[in-house]
Amino acid sequence: MEHTSVIKRENQQTKSHLPSIYSLTFEQLKNWIIEQGEKPFRATQIYEWLYQKRVTHFSEMTNLPKALREKLSGHFDITTLKTLVKQTSKDGTMKFLFELHDGYSIETVLMRHNYGNSICVTTQVGCRIGCTFCASTLGGLKRHLEAGEIVAQVVKVQKELDEQNERISSIVVMGIGEPFDNYDELIKFLKIVNHAKGLNIGARHITVSTSGIIPKIYQFADEGMQVNFAISLHAPTTELRTKLMPINKAYPLPKLMDAVRYYIEKTGRRVTFEYGLFGGVNDQLEHAEQLAELIKGLKCHVNLIPVNYVPERNYVRTPREQIFAFERALKKHGINVTIRREQGHDIDAACGQLRAKERKEETR
């Protein structure tokens, strides 16, 4: 079975794979249209077909000249994702395992809140960061996603919501992979989903999270984008963070905090620190005190995350009362803190968990 899956993927990779039209920003598409000798307004028409009418074939773009439709189909694919598994939780959370053109798989999650529908997207097939608590890194990094493959996740899930007359109102880039390890494609994705003629997701309704690739934090600050920014912190000291997150060896905590300060000063925007609570590891009151000392004076918010149990990892959940005690300790120091509401607890909710269970040959 596993051998057959590998052969299948090799065969799929030998097929011609055209660039995804979802990978083109509006300006890139307009420039391509002009190069073809067409009027610039055709770019607006194409974006409407892709992101508002959500067609899957260029032949459906009936207000375009036939010759232009043929050029489009000869140069680009409209990326379609095959749904391998769809899980629905009692709380309405939906988790998808999608197959890509080369046979690899990725996860996407739809979360329902009282303020709207949020989608968590994946940026890589696997991950090389190696966080010791995460199922996404099992098997390492297979490849980066094209911007269009990230966009396609949003379009695919939005088509699910179309049947219920609902829409995606916010995006979090916190799925499988390290977004800043696929930086250029990430930035294109953000521009595409934010564009008024595209999916028109407001920048302030988009959140990007990084485990701490310091040079990219400086670069991201200089982009001038209004999207929300989060750091996966998970430990208040260099020693403990290195045990949990090997990336701390390359990008130590003190230098990470310098980059965070630069981001806040440059953008004037608040940073969210994601802090997963692991029973007996980083969830004691002394850790809360150390965390408060680390981030004091910063324009920030702490999001405490009770961890999902992952069978391939050995971490256990922090007791409920200990979570509240940790929260109180931070609030005592004037830290803005919330506890993430658990969702999808009755399905494979942890990031990378569904892929690890269903696609063992990918995550070995």
Query: What number of structural domains do the residues give?
Result: 2
> What name does CATH use for the topology of the largest domain?
TIM Barrel
Q: What shape does the CA trace take? A: globular
Helix content: 25-40%
Strand content: 15-25%
What's the number of helices?
13
Number of strands: 12
User: Going by CATH, what is the homologous superfamily of the largest domain?
Assistant: Aldolase class I
- Mean pLDDT across the residues is 91
Can you name the CATH architecture of the largest domain?
Alpha-Beta Barrel
SSE ordering: HHHHEEEEEEHEHEHEHHHEHEHEH
CA gyration radius, whole angstroms: 21 Å
What is the structural class? alpha/beta
Strand order of the largest sheet: 1-2-3-4-7-8-9-10-11-12
Q: For this structure, what is the CATH class of the largest domain?
A: Alpha Beta
Largest sheet: 10 strands, mixed
Keywords: 4Fe-4S, Cytoplasm, Disulfide bond, Iron, Iron-sulfur, Metal-binding, Methyltransferase, rRNA processing, S-adenosyl-L-methionine, Transferase, tRNA processing
Enzyme class: transferase
Active site: 107, 351
Protein name: Probable dual-specificity RNA methyltransferase RlmN
